[in-house]
Amino acid sequence: MSKTKRVIVYGDIHGCLEEFLTLRKQIDIKKGDVEISVGDFIAKGPYSLDTLRFLEKSKILCVRGNHEDKIIRYKLHYDEEKRSGKKNPMKLEEEEKRFFFSLKEEDFRFLSSTKFYLKIGSLTVVHAGITNKIFLSRATKKANAQVMRVRFVDEKGDFVALDETDKKGCCYWSKVYDNHEGFIVYGHQPFLKPKIDRFSIGIDTGAVYGNFLCAVVFDMDEDVNISSYRFYFQKSKKAYVKRKKSWPL
Ligand SMILES: [Mn+2]
Prior knowledge:
Strand 10 and strand 11 form a beta hairpin. The strands form three sheets. A five-stranded mixed sheet has the order 3-2-1-12-13. A five-stranded mixed sheet has the order 4-5-9-11-10, with no helix packed on it. Strands 7-6-8 form a three-stranded antiparallel sheet. The chain is of the alpha/beta class. It has a domain at 5-115 and 190-235: Metallo-dependent phosphatases (Purple Acid Phosphatase, chain A, domain 2), CATH 3.60.21.10. It has helices at residues 17-27, 48-57, 66-84, 94-102, 105-112, 141-147, 173-176; strands at 5-10, 34-37, 61-62, 117-120, 123-126, 152-153, 159-160, 171-172, 183-186, 195-197, 200-202, 212-220, 224-235. The chain binds manganese (II) ion. Manganese (II) ion (MN) binds next to loops.
């Protein structure tokens, strides 16, 4: 008999390290547990750099969120500008700039090591979601960008930008997801409580906005048991940023 292990997936941490540490205590993380972050573990919140270093030190598997991606892309342009003088076309906000210049080369290496998706048995973790036309193992650069950002799809099932959601037949991607990549756990879009659909769970419960940091825990024998899972929540100490857009969806 193989021993049962746990797979723990954390929602968007956004530098809320205190809440994250308390949540891990609550879950009672043990050796042998497999821990995964859905990404966006940096930006907006109070302890982005410490969170990044804690995740690396603790060997927590990390999916790349749009905020990590922005820093990685900026770094490529920044190095290119230093090398060839070609002007960096990207702009960072003040907070992002401070974060960027606090990073050491090894921090950039860690950020660059994050994956667009992680699969453990029947379980798939992505940052934002997927469309039925994207196949993760042969995703293009454009598809990977969508996997980190998708919220809505149109009636043909294609990615819809946030300012085009009045398009006819537009719906949240998870509503029409056909399970072709297996059961998906994702973050990116804050909800007041986890969004549970037939083939997916959204676990960004808006920690940085003063709601909760969420983790979902699965048991694993030969495969991850996706039919039984439980949630853990850690209430945020405060709202670190005000939400500009209305939420929940
Ligand atoms: Mn995000």
